[in-house]
Amino acid sequence: PRGTRESKVAEGTRVAMADVAALEAEIDRLHAYCERHGLNSRGVSDIVGREFALPVDAEHKATVLQVTTAAQPHMRAFHLAWLGFFSTFFSTFAPAPLMPYIKPALGISKREAAVAGMASVGSTIFFRLIMGLVADTIGARRGMAACLLVTTLPILGMMYVQDATGFIVCRGLIGISLASFVACQAWVSVMFSKPIVGLANATAGGWGNLGGGITNLAMPFVFLAVRDSFAPGDDDAAWRLCFWLPALLHFGTGLATLTGRDLPDGNVDELELSGAKQKSRSDVVLKVGFSNLNGWLLCVLYGMSFGVELTVTNEAATYFFEYHGLSVKLAGALASCFGLMNLFARSLGGIASDWLGKRFGMPGRIWSLWISQALEGVFCCLLGLTTSGMALEEIPASNTAGRCVLLLSVFSIFVQMAEGGTYAIVPQVSRSALGVVSGIVGAGGNLGSVVTTAAFFASSDARTDDSFIKMGLAIVASSCLCALLYWPDEGGALLGPRALGRFNPQLVLPPEGYGGADVIDLSGFAKGAPATARSTVLSTVKLSESVSTASEYESSADAENGDGSKESAAAPAATQPSKLCSAELRSVLSSDAVEQALKGLALSPAELRHEDALDALRLESPGLSTDELRRRAMSAGGATDRSALELV
């Protein structure tokens, strides 16, 4: 009887649905395991069919950080970002450990040395703001490359300076390269997903900052090697020749940066030309970025973490040389401990921020930053208190150098953690103006160095240890600004969501529909993408959402005509290509469900055949755009099938 047959079909369909659901759950668990271990087990590819090396989210941002590979695009961008910033940090602070040789050669006073230090970190403030705009409009990759290559020239110019003025000018011009930090953080931010962007940003920034420690450690030994090999007995020639090393580092890294990719799916100009990415508007990103109050608060906070790091990097080697009576080599080696903490400490700040962010949302991230920065100030004070009560001539005999190195290292750990915590929050401030906000906060770091140097270290009669105490107190006081950070939907450290009513720290909102610099319209580009890329879009259609019509389809297949005969429900006019709908999937899904999935892709079966033909022709003629291929096909007679297209 027909009723019995229909009930059996319905029961069979329910059993099949349960089996398929269980299989889906097992496969999802297997994928989750593989993705946690850095495997792109789903075979997701970008919009032109290049398979990603790492697992990615719906926006093609990496969900894991795998530092042992440099595969395109995510990890290539990560390694080039930190290496580029490392190069600029190395070159900017290369003169610091050589000052015992440079000062007498050029007749530089303590005041002039302080001015040179301020020039090296202050000159980049404006250029960090510019770099933020560059990152939002043409991409951080090209901004990084330009920064590295252009500033190679003043590094070479350092070899020819003859007086304090020339030295100050060269240090200022080299310092412009520190704008690469903004490119570094903006580039990494668009490559990694929200749950791990704090760790990724912190690690890239920390390894870049490592350049400050490495240069303090390496340059004295480079000087000795150059003097022994190329300028025996000539200290003046030896320190000048040392600058070949940072110059080569800049040039080589700048060229390597060009091999990266702006975004996971391609470079900015290519994506804008294809229509997959909205063209960025400089007027919008500037208004939105400069009108966000959270960005300006983070600017001040970063000035008291990264700015403090720059100041201490300029002062540490001289402090151990002059106060503790150590040799140039040993003073540089001990001072390098401060920068070497970047190897892991900044990442700790990102990890702590991500961990607390997962559990408590934005308030957790803010508290992570607040605690780190407050402890930074405490240990800065303790460092200064170690020798502040002693006469200068008593310090070398007090054997306090070891204690100072320990306190300097702990102080550095909290400095780096505060930096990592800050840039774990920056990507959450304004996606529409990520680069500009990164530039504002980064500029605050350098401005903080200028302010702390001028306020605490520039005076000729100021003791360095007393200056550490004063700077530490200022750091603790500034950390309280964390209480003012606020997101309407998530709240702040002391306020809950919507606690301030309709107040929004984003004073100027972006135009409706305006996306960020990293927003890619994957669905809109599906028509022009190869079949391998389109299949990844179809794979997101959940089976459980489509099988609901299977029972209706099976019942209608046995419907009787008026004359008692049976007529099977026909499938759609064109059977779907196996690459988009496998035989196993079609055996479970009804034709209506398949059509619904294809409709979601905005592609009819005829369009699919047409696009498949274009894909094949595109491989044979990569120089032609899709529009040009279609135009030539139509001019050849309006043909849309593959055989006709192959004649074009």
Structure write-up:
The protein is mainly alpha-helical and 648 residues long. Helix content is 65%, strand content 1%. β1 (486-487) and β2 form a beta hairpin. α5 runs antiparallel to α21. The longest helix has 37 residues, at 194-230. Residues 524-594, 596-605 and 637-648 have low confidence and may be disordered.
pLDDT averaged residue by residue:
82
**In one word, what is the shape?**
globular
Percent in helix: 55-70%
Helix segment tally: 31
Give the tally of β-strands.
Answer: 2
Rg measurement, Å: 30 Å
Tell me about the biggest sheet? Answer: 2 strands, antiparallel
Percent strand = under 5%
Structural class: mainly alpha
Distance between the termini: 58 Å
Ranges where pLDDT stays below 50 over 5 or more residues in a row are 524-594, 596-605, 637-648
Which strand order does the major sheet show?
1-2
Give descriptors for this structure:
648 residues, mainly alpha, 2 strands
Short structural description:
The protein has 648 residues and is an all-alpha fold. Helices cover 65% and strands 1% of the residues.
